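Model: Ready when you are.
Researcher: Fold this.
Model:
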Amino acid sequence: MEEPQFKTDDLKLVNAQQAWHYRIIPQRINGHILCYTDRETGLQEMKEELELLTGIEVVLESLHPEVLIKYLNKYYLREDTERQSEMYAGESADFVSEIIGEARRLKSSDIHLEIYEDRCRVRIRIDGLMIERYKLEKTEYPAVINKIKILSGLDIAEKRLPQDGRINFDSGQHKFDIRVSILPTLHGEKVVLRLLSNDATDISLDTLGFSEKDLLHYLEGVRRPNGMVLISGPTGSGKTTTLYATLKLLNKETRNVLTIEDPIEYTLEGINQVQLKESIGLTFASALRTFLRQDPDIIMVGEIRDVETASMAIRASLTGHLVLSTIHTNSAWGIVSRLIDMGIPPFLLANTLNTTVAQRLVRLLCPACKLQVAFDEALYPRNFAPYKPVDTHYVPVGCERCHHTGYKGRAAVYEIIPVDQLLAEKIKQNEHDIQQHLAQMEVKTLAENAFVLFANGQTSLEEIYPLLFNF
């Protein structure tokens, strides 16, 4: 059957706990409620209870169990925990706490509250993709935004300028920080809440996705007493997590470790962490100057954004410190070109660069529902030469466990280039023809490492397709 068009107001007739208890999806039609259900017994009793609950006449219509489960997961998303009541804005005493708690349980990284001409919505990002979770009435939206402003110490009267704040959220069981960004738009204020995990106990280099060879190359760079290790990749590619896992490995009682971050996403015992505050002049570059007077062994800079920060990082590494940082480029070797373009002399880079890293995150197929099918090489990008033949591959399907996305969890894909003496000479000469040397060193590109995940059936061609152009 064609999927019914369920309206938000109709879905609000029952909350998630009731929808799952009765196994129904409600739809208001001609003055009564049509409830789709897969129940075969006790229908009259359920009809009477629903009419008592809603105060409206109820008509039941049979629906295949698999289709009903799909709709329930789509419209009444829940987590398999003791707490399964998902509430809508009008039903919740504290809607902000509800959506934050739900996003945390679903391991979401961001919450987006958005307002348009005739509707408002709340979306959450799970495994890198946005999923619409709630729709709000326009009359309710300002109160929700003001609640967020109050929690984050922002000015509720200011609606014309962007604002940034922070919430220290304490649910009783979990404590974590939330970065708040408010942006004035055409129809009102859009809010993004970034959930920052304070718990770094589960972060480890061994579990991030390094191959054995890549991990060996990476550890060679970070275990040197001085120099720079730089990680590149787009926003949300896991660079910061890799840096924290590295700091956790290097954090010893005998070392002084300093970081300047924006924001501080994890807290690590024994590490001196500084929050960037550009409004008062505390920038990456100014913090680095002060760090050099703090007798550091290891320095972590959240991001190299400009030539001043790059120059200070070079200076710190030249004076006997290990510097870890991130930079925005498309490949590991592109880091060298980017820094040279910034104005860093090639001979300084050659003397200080230990390792360059490119990183991406790839969604993994849900093991419960992925489907194996025959593979056609015409699906590859044009001019791409596969690293080995693939006869069959897996495609996403979608089930209750993965919220019908077909994917569950993500893995990091790396490209790691250790800078040896020959590469240092090429940097000095500003040469870019390094492919033959990298092949001799058995350095795997992003495309090769991503292809391994695809060939092993861990992810889909769709997920790695953009990386296959980086050959």
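Researcher: Now this one.
Model:
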Amino acid sequence: MPTKNIENAKVHLVLGCGGARGIAHIGVINELKRLNCKIVSVSGCSMGAVVGGIYCTGKLECFTDWLLTITKKDVFSLMDFTLSTSGLIKGNKILHVIEDLIGKYNIEELDIPFTAVATNLSHRKEEHYKTGNLYKAIRASIGIPTLFTPLIDHDKLLIDGGILNPLPLSIVKKNSEDEIVVAVNLFARRKNNPFHLKKNEPLINTSYFGSYKNTVENLFSDWLKAEDNEPKLEVPNVINILKQTVDLMQEQVTYETISTYKPDVLVNISRDFAKTMDFHLADRLIKEGVRAFNSVI
């Protein structure tokens, strides 16, 4: 869509999940503001719910300033680790920090209609938060399986909204022909292998042959060589395998969603651009959001 068609547009903004890559949403929002667009609704899940919800409070600039001060050490210090068998992090500490920074809000009090998407594991369906405590809705939406403990809300066991709807285009309803849908996809096709590759050693370790090492290598080099010189996959741990499994599922669901509910503007952020917990790369990620947005308009 050319720039002249998006200037001053009424925008339904859809923000996808993807961990720290979701900071790129801020760059997209800043560009929409620069083009004098009016955001008439925001729908998001996981990090998309975080950025989208805070934007609807009018305090995104304050949140951005804080994000730009975050270091790797700070990210670790904000993690309230737990020995629970349902997850590694409770996720309450970071939300309390944000609430202290931004203030208390109920969703129905926001100036812009906002929907946070979570997955109701108990009833096996999506859960859409359009009212109630903003931070409770965000906490429900960010519950990455095994990383964050699920949120229990009455009879509901709630986990990451990205499990069922990683880019919630399906819940957007245009009210007039002059409205457009802008979606930010954090699962653009990867270029790199998600698992590390390692090179085989050219020869099996012969150090134990002592002073005969060179002779042994010369005489038996063909026999001592590894079976091949092709790169080998390192054996990943169970958490990494599960994470990559969930990511692959979310990627496939995202592209099915995009194919079915075609947005007017689709901004793609590469999966390789940042890891889930790379919140210390906020400045880089915001700039990538700006770049990615301007590459498609």
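Researcher: Key takeaway?
Model: DSSP finds ten helices and twelve strands in the chain.
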